[in-house]
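Chapter review. Work through the record for Eukaryotic translation initiation factor 3 subunit B before attempting the end-of-chapter questions.
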Amino acid sequence: MAPSFDHLRDEDLDEDDFDVDEVDISDIREKYEVQLEQGYDAFVVVDGLPEVTEEQKPKLVKFLLKKLNTVGKTREDLIFMPMGEDGKSMRFAFVEYSSPAEAAAACRQLDLVPLDKKHTLRVNKLTDVDRYGREGRIDDEYTPPQIEEFQEKEHLRSFMADPSGRGRDQFVMFRGETVGVFWNNEKDTPENIVDRQHWTETFVQWSPLGTYLTSVHAQGVQLWGGPSWTRQRRFAHPFVNLVAFSPNEKYLVTWSNRPISIPEEGHPALSLDTPAAATAEGDAPKKAPKFPWPAFKWSADDKYVARLNPGQSISVYELPRMNLLDKTAIKIEGVVDFDWAPATVQRDGVKTYEQLFCFWTPEIGSNPARVGLMSIPSKQVVRSLNLFSVSDAKLHWQSEGAYICVKVDRHSKSKKSQATTLEIFRVKEKGVPVEVVDTIKDTVINFAWEPKGDRFVIISTTEPVGATAVPPKTSVAFFCPEKAKGNAVGNFKHLRTLEKKNSNAIYWSPKGRFVVVATVANTQSSDLDFYDLDFEGEKPESDKDLTANLQLMNTADHYGVTDVEWDPSGRFVATWASAWKHSMENGYHLYDFKGEQLREEAIEKFKQFQWRPRPATLLSKEEQKAIRRNLREYSRIFEQEDAERISSADVAVVEARRHLLEEWFAWRESIVQEVAEEREIYGLPADPAAELIKAKTSELSTDGEEQVIEEIMEEVLEETEEIVQ
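Structure tokens for Eukaryotic translation initiation factor 3 subunit B:
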């Protein structure tokens, strides 16, 4: 923060920063100075200044000049600060820049910027003041504004109240040119809520708490919500490609592979450049860009956002003002990547809980690679770890920030072979101890923590990672802690490894316990394996001291599957084959958590399926524990409701069929009656079949005499064939 003007020292006003010279050079300046453009386009009005006397005025002008010259070029004699009749300044000033472009830049970059702790600048063009404040546009007499009658707005969280009372979740589907939102009806056809043609041009995306549905267009993005699905906000960004929300939905970042053009009148959003190497390819809008995305990463509380300057530093900004923390980036030589903790971690022995992020740097010269854990805003490195022979590293936070696993790919001295180690930081424990899981000789290609838990799954392969005609065989390994006394978490141990698999993706239930290990985007295989890590059956003797009991519940196959996603409740899993990836058998499947298929629907040009997220529960931990204790009682109520619903559905089907049958009988009766009336009109018999039988009978009998009917039959008894020469 800038020093307060009230306590400004003379040292803060370095005369070398200004063109102050006692020598009279007015003749030289008049001869060689570049003439300012005519008109008022180069003038701005700076408001929000402190009130000063005539003696204090030069000091304030020099202090203000430091800010003004950060966006353009001006001088002391081009700043006019009016004084009131009481001899004090009127708290605003007129400033002339060297060009209209600099004046426009000042309006964009200096408006709402703090001058000191007590004063915030407001910067506007002089032409705007003249345009909106000229005589005739402002009444001399004050007229109180007309307050519009309050209109109640739709509740943006109305989707949490399922009208059926069954606690269903919603999902969005993008197929062809149509986007629709539906209630999940398990085995039955989904209940459509809204269906719109051309709702988006590229893809749709839910905000993290499910409040908004984002549509993406050539002009920018739009946010939709409420029961009527009205547009809540729109943000202009030409040719936008990607969208990212902050965790609490307070901020939105958009990215385009084209340079953004900001008009002179300014833009309400912050615009920053990113590497120009990224391009959008094909019809799949979410193709991985060539630069890290999201470009900005958010702290769990939305108070900070950070940006990586590869190989140099990490810039952390305070929100909402977006000012650089302590006015300087955090210099970390060689930094490759970083990631914020997904929750505010309560560390043992620490009274003040700050936000944490983890970063890593490669080996530089004789210096080892390093992993660091930094606390923000204090910028204190709370834990660091040196690593050797490092080829690459990946950072994996557990959902509550209790652990972070650093997956380290190491090479041998000859660099011909490679192995992986898992360095697990126990963030909540005092001193942040680091546990090293046994070296894995194979290359780990996937890692996933159990949400809100302390178990994890990895997928590894013995073959080199890369594009191959036939994907390599993989191994799936499960890890969990040992049992420990009290609430302590024991050391991580290997639970089980499944060999010779084709799996390449891991999808945990958001509630933990259940996990789907899948093979996606693979033309050779499309396996789905459903596992339970807290199976209630008999536990093997070898696993008695471990905190997991692994059981394969079911296997499934979805040909051409490209994506897998759990619903927020952890009860259902959706898999789909997207037309963005291939055009074969596009559509979706729906499974329950046990792997039983509930529904399958093939849809031409099916592109996207996405469950609507839910905000965090409002129940306290005690209330959640009470629900778990009484779960059996609630289960009986739910089972009874399900049975009644199924029974009522069966009754409805029977009634509908009976109604159709009655309609058919009534129609048939009307037709029979209509035909009988027509026969009577034309003199035809009412029953033609009976009349025909009667006529035949009369032909066969002639006055009661018997008739002899002779039949001649010819039969061949023997036949021979002789060939004559």
